[in-house]
Amino acid sequence: MNALHLTPRPLYEEVAERLRQRIFARDLEPGSWIDEIRIAESLGISRTPLREALKVLATEGLVTMKLRRGRVLRDRKPARDEVEGLDGQAPGWPLSED
Question: Are 98 and 79 in contact (CB under 8 A)?
């Protein structure tokens, strides 16, 4: 019998997933500034894994990073091809036909 080996996920990946869910549920509003301290405290983590998670979300186009100004949620409608692979989850924004 083969044993199932689970590999623990890095904390920043779990944080990115939670933030992604909050973005799609519109708990975090598009165009709003991201309060790193408040979010880190609400998740019970330091700002380091939060910042790593925000980098992941920036590569996905969900967050815009402003040099020396912080991070802001993207305020736009994603194209259909950007939301493929979400396993049927509604993205939380109306879809554009781009």
Answer: yes
User: Count of alpha carbons within 13 Å of 54, Cβ hemisphere only?
Assistant: 20
Enter the tokens of residue 46.
């330091």
31-57 residue pLDDT tens: 888 899 999 999 999 999 999 999 999
pLDDT class of 3 with cuts at 50, 70, 90: confident
d(Cα 76, Cα 55) in Å, to the nearest integer? 18
pTM (2 d.p.): 0.66
The four Cα atoms 96, 28, 10, 78 give a dihedral, to 10 degrees, of 10
- CB-CB neighbours of 18 under 10 Å: 14
Separation in Å, CA 3 to CA 6, 7, 8, 9: 10, 13, 16, 19
